[in-house]
Amino acid sequence: MNLGLRSGVRLIFDFLWGTWNILTPCIRTQMWPIFLSFTRRLKDVVKGVWRLLLSQTYQKLALLLLPAAIGLTVFFFPPGTVNYEAGEPEPLSVADLLRAQGRLEAQGKMTDNLRACLDLALQEFMREPPSIQDNAQMLIQCRGTVLEFKSGDGEHEIYTYYLNGEPRYDMKEPTMDVYLSRLRSHPERLSVENLLKVQNRLEAGGTMTELLRRCFELTLERFPKEPVCLQHNARLVISTVGTRMVFLSGRGENEINVYPDNMGIIQYVVKVPGWWTWVARNKVTIVLVTIPIFICQMMIYQKTRQRR
Known about the structure:
The protein is of the alpha/beta class. 58% of the residues lie in helices and 20% in strands. The chain crosses the membrane at residues 284-301.
């Protein structure tokens, strides 16, 4: 058995050795020159490609392919693009904003977010004083679309943008006088955050008087304790001598007036139109009054039953 295995292995080895001896002359005379010729040609091709990359022809080719590459990038990555609707600022007025809104609707470029930004820009810009409307620059930026408008010298900068799921309207006032005039004619959003922001702005501008500071302190003490239904639907007016500031939330159905009386005592007066808001503000008083009445009724009822 071992002898047969050795004979088989010896036979295979002799066959492979004989085949190698036969193919070696063929490889040396025919295949090796072909391989050397292929490597030389490959080397020449690499050198030619390298020269092409460094030549002026390649530079021209790159310039021709660059627009195509940019176009493909924009096509495959549309969320990151910014669409400037106008190369130069459009005229700024209420009519111009309405015209731009109609144009975008007709072109099919209007999105829900952009419509919300334009609606807010129209609503707030209409309430600006004429001195601001005639000399302002407005930038509307919403999810990749940018609209720019300008009136006069564009001294007052207005920004409308989308943030945290809602449109925002902000203005950069150049002077404190303009800021105070806007507070009188253009209501700020009513919230604790905005009250603190206005208070800090007045303190930094050096226009905060002692009476006005006390009005803000009382407002910031009382307003956060109001029911949520009142906070989200109120009109707050802070008035002192020569100063009037308006803050608005919702439809402004609940009125809050903060002012110093003739004795210099700060008054915080709330007027509510409906029963629900009144009940929400006075629930503790209602409970304190109702409990004794309920107890008295129960006592009367018990005495009546005992007599029967």
